[in-house]
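Journal club side-thread
Mid-discussion, someone asked how the predicted structure for our own chain would compare to the paper's figures. Pasting it here so we can look after the session.
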Amino acid sequence: MRVCTRSTDMEPKKSWNSLKDFTGVLSQPDPAVRITSTHVQQIRDKAQSLKAEFIEQLDSQLGDVFANFIDEVDGTRSGRSTPIEEPKHRKKNREQQVKTFVARRSVLTELLEVSHIKTIQHVFIAVLIIFSLNTIVYDIVDTGRLQLNFETITWAFGKFPVVMWVWCLMLISTMLLVFPFFTFWAQHRHFQSRLPDAFWLLLYTAYQVAFIVLPVKALLMYELPPASTICVVTEQVRFIMKAHSFVRENIPRALSYKPHSDTDLNVEEDTDMDEIGSTSSNSDSSGASALFDESSPCPGFSQYLYFLFAPTLVYRDHYPRTPSIKWNYVFSNFMQVVGCLFYIYYIFERFCMPVFQNFGKEELTIRNLTLSVFGCMLPATLVLIISFFAILHSWLNAFAEMLRFADRMFYRDWWNSSSFSNYYRTWNVVVHDWLYTYVYRDCLRGLGYSRRALAMLSTFLFSAVAHEYILIIAFRFFYPVLFLMFAGIGFSFIFITDKGVARGWNVFMWVSLFIGNGLLMCLYSQEWYARINCPQESSDLMDMFTPRSWTCKYKPVSSSS
């Protein structure tokens, strides 16, 4: 009897051969090579990464083999000659995988050590220098003096003191409300017969609603500009996701806690910060943290505080840590963030504002709209790539280095994706891990493991609503272009490119990204300038939900004789 397996069954052999080659190099070192402490650390990181990949692939492939074998036996017993294509054992086992933290570097950190990839970064830096020289020369030739006028970027990030005090209030509430109340509930739930668990759930829900409403009211009251608003709202969403992760991961721990004496209720909060996360953490099948003190119903405050600043959205009691902090690496990453901000500013200043700032003052035709969309494709995609590098690589790596957070897998090689499903999984691993753990898997538990497509759709809708919420608050209007493209077209592309293996599908993905980003920049820019150049028809709430770019009529300016 033959057991049918997929072609990917050879992947563990590939990882095993890589591991054997790697260990062979270590066992027979070249006497001419001098191994330094940096090399030792790189070897250790590579070994940890190979170990994690090998175990994950081996577990997945062995599960496939045994699942197919069982289905083959069942098929033979019932008279079937072929195995089931989608064994439920394998599917359910795959859906129960949990996030595992291991010490590893970011993909671009390793790639930028290659001289060819480093040259590509130098090209981007050279273009940024050309943009700066272009501005300087233009000021000198046009006005006769150097102005260095950055009104747009200073306006977009204006009212910084308001941003800081709103952020501080959100941080304080997350620190001094979520943890104390959860600790009190976890420690006293066995003795509080008058306050059932439903009361605490309702209280937590009310807190989350207030956490959404109050900062938004402050932003609207002080009329923060778009970039400052995005900073506050994204931090608001981050705190909400972190609070939910902490509560969600520790609820099973609190429910399974059985107090035996009064001394068991004392929580140890004097954990040394240098020891937090010194080892990688696994989770049990219910999603609760595996490495915790079973004599305590909740972790210590120092662990919670570290999690609030750590560059991850999935809570664990412990994370892998690096031995020291490289402050020059932190400084270089923050400088890269600043450079990326100016890069995006130059792109908007040169390619976006001149095209759309007269929208509503000139006649809009299909020809002009088409040219505007195609003219925005390259600048919008550049903004996407630069924003990715600034946030997911430089910003997160800077904080990871300061906190000695060793798992730097904030993204994967999404640029090589041949399917949109792989692109969504690898573009932003930090957010994907949260969505997969607390939205997708919980939907599977509630809906049933057979309704995978419905759980996936629910996850996409949740993510699309969160993205659209940020844009609504930032731009002060509802224009659901991103929502429709993300939850509609983007979701359908998962099934269209699901079987994509050839490299041509990677070209299709990039063409789709160029077109999609061009549409987003064009349509949102038109709506933004339409609300500036066209008179407001009404001041009620409906005006916020009515696209002004659709009703803005061309009014030619009469020339005086």
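Post-session note: The longest helix spans residues 37-77.
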